[in-house]
Amino acid sequence: MVTSLSSPSPDLERGAEGGVRSVNKESLVVKLRLFSALRELAGAKEVEVEADGQSIKEALAKFAARYGEKAQAALFDKQGELLASVLLLVNGEATAHGGATPVKSGDTIQVLLPTAGG
């Protein structure tokens, strides 16, 4: 299941929950491939966010705004900076600039959180 987080427009489509939502057919989106706690929060392996030309941090901020305080705390510190423990890949490649890495439409960002246990 892929969930879209795009800006409203006149176009409508039926969402996964059965409701009708606005979808901007011209929006430029990136996919966030989620693992562990983020996957549980979103209820999906992947979600889409409108983020063409923005940074990974901005795309993740849109995700966190949609999924609430738990998503925010899993990704960002109290000053709004991306946690250093979050591992990011863009299209399967490690990012050289972390959250500052720009993304473009069609990119897939893999977001991995540290896990504990033994």
CATH-level-2 architecture: Roll
What do we call the CATH topology? Ubiquitin-like (UB roll)
Q: Strand content of the residues, in percent?
A: 25-35%
Rg over CA atoms: 14 Å
Number of helices: 3
Low-confidence stretches: 5-23
> How do the SSEs run, as a string of H and E?
EEEEHEHHEEE
Backbone shape: globular
Q: What is the domain tally? A: 1
Mean pLDDT: 82
Oligomer: single chain
The first-level CATH class is given as: Alpha Beta
Question: Number of DSSP strands?
Answer: 8
* CATH level 4 superfamily: Beta-grasp domain
Characterize the structure shown.
- This protein has 118 residues and is α/β, with parallel strands linked by helices.
- The protein has a single domain, classed as Beta-grasp domain (Ubiquitin-like (UB roll), Roll).
- 22% of the residues lie in helices and 27% in strands.
- The chain is built from three helices and eight strands.
- It has helices at 36-42, 56-67, 69-75, and strands at 2-5, 12-14, 20-22, 29-34, 46-50, 87-90, 93-94, 108-112.
- It has a six-stranded mixed β-sheet.
- The protein is globular and about 30 Å long.
- The chain starts with a strand and ends in a 6-residue tail after the last strand.
- Residues 5-23 have low confidence and may be disordered.
Offer a few descriptive terms.
single chain, 118 residues, alpha/beta, Ubiquitin-like (UB roll), six-stranded mixed β-sheet, two-stranded antiparallel ribbon, 3 helices, 8 strands, globular
